[in-house]
Amino acid sequence: MEPLTVEVFAVGGYGEAGGRNMTAVRVDEEIVIFDCGMSLDKSLVFEKDFQKASTRELRKVKAIPNDSILRPHRSKTVAAVLSHAHLDHIGAVPKLLFKYKCPVFGTEFTIELVKADLRNEIRYADESEDIMINLYTVEPGDEVQITSKLRLEFIPISHSIPCCVLPVLHTPYGAIVYACDFKFDDNQIIGYKPDYKRLKQLGKEGVLLLITESLRVAEEIKTPSESVAREMVNDVLRFADEESEGIIVTTFSSHIERIQAIADTADRLGRKVILAGRSMGKYGRIAEELGLLNLPAGARIYDRPETIRRGLERANKEKEDYLLIVTGHQGEPGAVLPRIVDGELPYRLTEEDSVVFSSSTIPSPINRANRYVLDTKLRLKGVKMFKDVHVSGHAGREDHRLMLRMLHPEFIVPAHGDPDMLAAYAELATQEGYEVNRDVFIMFDGTKLSLPL
């Protein structure tokens, strides 16, 4: 008789906080892939257009996962699952998943964003059968029988992007829960709320393995609700409106609920809303089409160079009538806010203007350096800055503790974090009665783990 086998492949995101999230699980002779993300840092410094670059080029500079560990097992891959639509979880789909010839599952918002990326990929222009990716839309609560032994379930969860799920792989040996990324927020307006009842039930049924993010596990908090951010946005923008001619807010393009809150406050203040930037256009238009984003009357989205320029030129003439929501909160070169600061776009900043950062700086050396440069330039112009008008979308230590106590997993693999973050999760797990290298395992990219069944 064949020995029972469950193996975890740490493909990407293990030992780094900035992306390339990709995990594979082998159950006997069948493999399921979870997420397929890109590194935002590496793509920023990559000299070639990401969409036009080859898989080999991007793998070499560590912009996408190195999936060579899965090469001997490609024919055994029976499904891929996308937990949500952040680029560090879906950005490498066009570069890698066509090789696996398996169905790819995700919620509607996630799948529509993948389709948008595929349309921009040079390799898909000829619609060859060899590079087809079969995408399937699921709803929270759905279950899909993918093989005679394996079943996928999609549990709704809250995060900083709409339509996020916790994929659960049901196996003959117990459930495998993939919790990258999440927080517990009962007050989100857009997207899904956590299904505590199902998570507790799952814990009673038996969870073999929890694969979980670890980005903010060292922070001894329960991550605040997005309702807190709504109040912060309202408070800061009302204050800025009294003191400023022009107001620019920069935030994550994917944070649809935050964009909605900013736009609603601008409308109450009597300011017209402009969304400016390529990614603002991509996320905003798809969110509007799916009924997730409801911008005020007269709001405009500008995502092409010529329309961005015309829109900013118009707003610059009547600054007090407009509020701009733009890309560039990490200071990334080529985004709208850094280009405004550098005088490349026709919106002139003065000491009468305010810039609001409804974001946090993603913890990586490149982002910290870019933000330092951007902040320094804004100070030199005398612009009023309002920073950290934001709450995180990632679980704090107490969110993680609650997840552990609901699921009671037999084994744990922390993911999506640098070595310090992975170690911090292991510390939490030991507080809850687990032991490192017995039932909690620290992994790094390119390694695999056989669970002791």
- How are the strands of the largest sheet arranged? 6-5-4-3-2-1-19
Task: Tell me, briefly, the overall form.
Answer: globular
Largest sheet: 7 strands, mixed
What would the average pLDDT be, to the nearest integer?
A: 94
Ranges with pLDDT <50 over ≥5 residues? none
Strand content: 15-25%
* Fraction in helix: 25-40%
Q: What structural class do you assign from the helix and strand content?
A: alpha/beta
> How far apart, in Å, are the first and last alpha carbons?
15 Å
Our count of helices gives: 14
Tell me the Rg in angstroms: 22 Å
Oligomer: single chain
In total, how many beta strands? Answer: 19
Q: How would you characterize the overall build of this protein?
A:
The chain is α/β, with parallel strands linked by helices. Helix content is 32%, strand content 21%. The protein has 14 helices and 19 strands. A seven-stranded mixed β-sheet has the order 6-5-4-3-2-1-19. Strands 7-8-9-10-11-18 form a six-stranded mixed β-sheet, with helices on one face. It has a six-stranded parallel β-sheet with strand order 14-13-15-12-16-17, sandwiched between helices. The chain is globular, with a radius of gyration of 22 Å. The model has no long low-confidence stretch (mean pLDDT 94).
